[in-house]
Amino acid sequence: MTDRLPQFADWPVACLRNPQARRDLVYDAQPTPWLSLAGTAAAWGELRQWPTYQPTPLRSLHDLAANLSIQQLWYKDEASRFGLGSFKALGGAYAVFRQLVQPVEAATGKADITAADLCSGQYRDLTQTVTVTTATDGNHGRSVAWGAQQFGCRCVIYLHAGVSAGREAAIAAYGAEMVRVAGNYDDSVHQAAADAETHGWILVSDTAHPGDTEIPSVVMQGYTVMVAEVFDQLPPDQLPTHVLVQAGVGGLAAAVCAYLWERFGRDRPTTIVVEPDRAACVYATAQQGELVTLTGDQDTLMACLSSGHTSTIAWDILRYSADWFITIPDEAAVLTMQQLAHQRSPIVAGESGVAGLAGLLVICQQPAIRQQLGLTTTSRVLTFGTEGATDLEIYQQLINRSVSAPANLMP
Fold it and tell me: Of residues 77, 137, 316, 391, which has the active-site annotation?
């Protein structure tokens, strides 16, 4: 057990105030019609009917808040979500359900087909003719594969070379066909999209590109259920002043920001988007004020946040609603995992899942940045623990690893 914080005072962190942030704009769901509070209510109403649905815990980290000199710190712990180990279970599986409902309702003339209807197998002759596919670093693919198994369709999952064998096995356990692609995450995305077009499969992507926004919007809408749960669990007189959320392609960050923007308007919390410094495509996009594609190696320990492309619909939202963008080194995530694992009440958290909290630990120990972001002794901070130990072998290695400051800071 340890109450001693990792020391991040001199660690490298890039911090960018969003020059396009607008508190005066009213949220407009028209560019992304699936992403709205009404859509959240519909998704939550559906997901609540799924047999294994339970709200995940919102943990109050009192000791850590005291050590960081803030009033309150909440950690939305997604490790138990649908038994899949991450928040992604809310997005991919929900999108698979929505895609299967359409042909079933068209063929039968019935409305209001439910997940229970599909799971019963009564429409298996229709659903089994459908193939869904996606590319993944692990968690999204597991959600899509689980949804396909539950609802009775075929599933093909594309993995890039860096996805661990443990994560591949976890996806394959749900009956998905696995395809390995040489290269990085973006290479697997391109291959999945090309094969989906060739074979007439449904691409359940969590990344939107021009002309391909509907399904990624549904995936993001599923994520907003997690945010709605948070505000159902929070004391009404203790709303957060700051929210830190991690970004890969930006889908989760945009889902969080869209919910806050529409629900709270100009009174929403300060939002801080956190990325690994080795794969900071959203940061680069914010810096340039337009979509940027990173080139070269985006290999980061926070594997589920590794991407060189920002989702187009994510940027449509983040452009005006995110207040700050920061990047952190991989070592910060490892030390944050260790902090949670060895504290008084241990929490099992994966390397991508702790990025937002790691960002908070870093900036709270850097006075100039802390002051810029308005973090004080009265701040109430919300973070999202987006995954548990989705690869147990990697998790055990990381929480027992000796970690030093990043190499460029060493004497």
Answer: 137
